[in-house]
Amino acid sequence: MKMKKALWVILMSAIMSAFTTMGVSAAYVSDRENAYGAQYAINFYKLVLAEMAMSRNEWHNALVLYVDLSKSSKNEEIRDKALDLALAIQSNQVAEQLLSRWLAQDPYSIPANVYKAKLLMAKGKPLAAQQILDRLPPTLAHHNEIIFLQSLISIELKNYSAALSSFKDINNDEYTNSVAYFTAQIHEMLHNPNEALIWYQKVRPSEYYFQAKIRLSTLLMQE
Fold it and tell me: Is 190 helix (H, G, I), strand (E, B) or coil?
C-alpha cells in the first residue's frame, strides 16, 4: 500500500470516528459563555449545517462551513476538525491556510507543527515532515501521535526496521489496531507472509478491520 493512500485511510477513519453530532456540538456549546447574541446563533446554525453535510458525506460543503466557523469561533476543536477534514479530503491549500493562521499566532505550538508534518506527508514530502518532528521538544501529551507519524514516515522511506522499532514505543491502546495492521503491511512488503498473517489476525474491529480481513483472506488463498 502506498503511504499516501495509507495516510488517507488513517485520516478518514479518524474523521469518521470523531465527527459525531453530539460531540462536536458539545464542543461548540462549551464556548457559550464567551459568545453572545446573533453571532453565537449564526455560528451554531453553521455547525448544525456542517454536521448535516458530514452525515451525508458532503465533505467539501462541510469543510467550507468548518473553515468559516474556525474564523469566528475561538474553540480549538472546531479548528482541529477543519484541519482534519481538509487533510482527509486532500484539500492541501485549505489546510495550509488554516495552519498559516495558527502558526502565525503560535509558531511553537506542538499540535500545529504535528499538523504541519501531516500536511507535508500528504504532499509526498516525508523527509520534510521528519525534520519538523525532529525539532519538536519531548512531550507526553503528543508522544504516541508523534511516534506513530514517525513510523509511517519510516515506512514511506522504506526504513522498515525503524518503523517496527518505533511501533514498540507506542504505549496507548488507541493505536493497538493501527500498529498491528501496519506491522502486517511491513511484513508483507518484506515477503514474510507467515508473520503478516499473525499480525493481521491481531486486528480487532476498528477502522482497519475490513482491510485486514481482506489481506488475511488473500494471503491464505496464496498459501
Answer: coil
Residue 63 three-state SS: helix
Question: Alpha-carbon distance 4 to 22, whole Å?
Answer: 31
Residue 17: its pLDDT value, please? 46
Residue pair 222/193 in contact (Cβ under 8 Å)? The answer is: yes
Distance between CA 144 and CA 133 in Å, rounded? Answer: 12
| pLDDT (average), residues 132-150 | 88
Residue 9 clears pLDDT 80, i.e. is over it: no
Length of the chain (residues): 223
Closest CA to 79 of 95, 60, 90, 58: 95
CB under 8 Å to 87, separation ≥6 — which residues? 11, 95, 115, 118, 119, 122
Q: What is the mean pLDDT of the chain?
A: 83
Within 10 angstroms of residue 25's Cβ, the number of other Cβ atoms is: 14
Bin 38: left if φ > 0, else alpha if -120 < ψ < 50, else beta. Answer: alpha
pTM for the full predicted model: 0.74
CA 65 to chain centre: 20
Provide the residue type at 50 as one letter.
Answer: A
- The cell for 109 is 505550538
pLDDT computed for residue 20 by the predictor: 43
Q: What DSSP assignment string belongs to 141-155? A: TTHHHHHHHHHHHHH
Cell of 170: 507506542
